[in-house]
Design brief:
The protein is built from two helices and five strands.
Length: 86
């Protein structure tokens, strides 16, 4: 499983998407290529450079739960694009 983190700040935490309700949702990617593609889309939208970080599945889910962050497991069948800032 893979997460995104700001390059140089990988130990600080994972990138999260803000839902319409204002919740911070962490994307957990099953496929590394999907994580790399999403990071590229973020950078194309002028986000800072992201790193793709491999994480152990259970540890990542447990960390999200302990910190009160919902998570979404992005499968190869999912299509996710970064939200647009208005």
């Amino acid at each position: 499983m893979y997460i995104l983190a700001l390059k140089g700040y990988e130990e600080e935490g994972a990138y999260a998407v803000t839902s319409d309700e204002g919740e911070q949702i962490v994307y957990l990617f099953l496929d590394k290529d999907d994580a790399v593609r999403y990071a590229g889309l973020l950078e194309a939208d002028d986000f800072p450079e992201m790193s793709v970080v491999e994480v152990e599945d259970r540890n990542a889910m447990r960390a999200c739960e302990q910190h009160g962050h919902p998570y979404y497991i992005v499968t190869p069948d999912d299509i996710v694009i970064p939200p647009r800032e208005d």
